[in-house]
Amino acid sequence: MSAEKRLKELKLDLAGVSAPVANYVNAVQTGNLLFLSGKGPRPGADGRRAKGKLGREYTVEQGYQHARSVGLDLLAVMKSELGSLDRVKRVVKVLGMVNSAEGFGDQPKVINGFSDLMVEVFGEAIGKHARSAVGMGGLPVNIPVEIEMVLEVE
Hints:
The chain is built from four helices and five strands. The chain is an alpha+beta fold. Strands 1-2-5-3-4 form a five-stranded mixed β-sheet. Strand 1 (27-30) and strand 2 (33-39) form a beta hairpin. Helix 2 runs parallel beside helix 3 (107-122).
């Protein structure tokens, strides 16, 4: 099934693409690779962006949802850059960074929120990817999760 059809079937709203928060662009394509800059969770219903550390302000499940939110934003970037998610040939590499309290070690479970979404949208053959999930002592503006990725595109 096409990624665009799957997105509609899942009733996922990509909304708009969030603007970069500093001196960079959301994506750079070179050849058949598309590099997507790191993004944090989308603002909540109250318009505020999540801030805090996993293992202190947030549980693993809340972190999973934050990572999924980042996935929605990165899907919006892909669609904006490519015109259609169906141009994605492979999700190649993902770097998931988790703002972690001392002793927190469940970064992979948090980043699964992102990885599970990629498989839901693109299927196993395209969406399953190489990945690193690492703990950080801090992230920009104290966001709980930041994720960047590399795609192979048509």
